[in-house]
Amino acid sequence: MSAAEEDAAVREPLDLIRLALDEKVYVKLRGDREARGRLHAYDQHLNMILGDVEEVITSTETDEETFEEFTKTTKRSVPFLFIRGDAVTLVSPPLRS
Amino acid sequence: MSPSRVVPLTFARGAIEKIAKSRSRRADVKSTRVLDVALFYSYFKTLVGKPVTVELKNDLAIAGTLVSVDQYLNIKLENTRVTDEARYPHMRSVRNCFIRGSVVRYVQLPEAAVDVDILHDATRREARGA
Amino acid sequence: MSAPTLTNMLDARVSVITNDGRHIVGTLRGFDQVTNVILEDCAERVYSSESGVEEAPLGVYMIRGDNVALVGPVDEELDAELDLSETRAPPLKAIKF
User: Fold this and answer.
1) Cβ–Cβ < 8 Å for A96, A22
2) CATH number of A13-92
3) What Gene Ontology terms describe what this protein does at the molecular function level (chain A) (predicted)?
């Protein structure tokens, strides 16, 4: 295998993440959190640094009068975010069209 | 601190390095694991003196100047300010602190101090196990 | 840069936030590499949305490092200015891994 082929090969799950470097990724985290952003760095604990991040937090709240439960989403943008790997549950590379 | 706490760690590191040197491919995987901690540890060291916001896994967010970091990504901050002080008045008389790496969820990084090309190169190098 | 330790806080009053969301203030008498800490003359500051902060004296505590989220020296001047009886806040959440 040439060096280029070697680099493009997917043998283990983390190779998929390697191919997503400098691409937009979707990351699901513990505590009903999701982040979308450009993957700039990662290691095998799935610690990572994302750029132009949009984070979405989903929480369930109860209406004080009707006691009905509803879900609330909070969005925010962060220029550069280090994410500790132990909070990460899923990483999805960009869809290729 | 008693030296008995230091010695086991020193011993373990020495042992891992020895194994990495003496074995071939399988040992290389192990040695990259050791190096691997180093990517973010090294990176955070370059941010010392810069402003960061550390968000903990209890939703507490603390802004401050990064003073130091270690291989567990334990962090020391100074001139700290809790982002939402009304909700979290606990730290009003604390101006610097030690944060255990394991309780960190996010660290917001200063835009000016992030060089994405350096991060890409360092990540590729580590992924190859160099 | 020296590694982050608690050396500079030895024998000082410190605030400790534990993983189960408690806030304990005491004099730091000892610590080790895994952040086990020994606190003397310590008290838990109990927060509530309905009433002021209550201080529950605890004596000497050894808190296991696994359960320590944050340690910071208390600025005694700033602390003396706090009106704890007027401080209202919901209890801290536990650290959720």
Assistant:
1) no
2) 2.30.30.100
3) RNA binding
C15-30 pLDDT, tens digit each: 999 999 999 999 999 9
Tally of structural domains, chain B:
1
Best mutation target among C95, C96, C97 (most B Cβ atoms within 10 Å) is C95
Task: Report domain extents, chain A.
Answer: 13-92
CATH label of the domain that carries residue B37 = 2.30.30.100
Angle formed at CA B69 by CA B66 and CA B72, multiple of 5 degrees: 140
Range of the domain at B45: 4-128
Of A87, A23, A31, A27, the C-alpha closest to A58 is A31
Contacts of B108 in chain A (CB under 8 A): 78-82
Using CB atoms, pick whichever of A21, A82, A84 lies closest to residue B124: A21
pLDDT tens sequence across B65-121? 999 999 999 999 999 999 999 999 999 999 999 999 999 999 999 999 999 999 999
Are C43 and C4 in contact by the 8 Å Cβ rule? The answer is no
Q: Domain containing C37: what range?
A: 7-74
**Residue C67 lies inside a defined structural domain of this protein:** yes
Cβ–Cβ pairs < 8 A, chains A and C: 5
Chain B residues close to C93, C-beta within 8 Å = 58-59
ipTM comes to 0.94
Residue range A22-65, pLDDT digits in tens: 999 999 999 999 999 999 999 989 999 999 999 999 998 888 88
For B39, B95, C5, C38, the CA distances from C8, given in Å and listed in that order, are 28, 13, 8, 15
Total domain count for chain C?
1
Q: Residue B126's pLDDT is what? A: 87
The shortest C-alpha distance from A33 to chain B (Å) reads 11
Question: Which chain C residues contact residue A31 at CB under 8 A?
Answer: 96
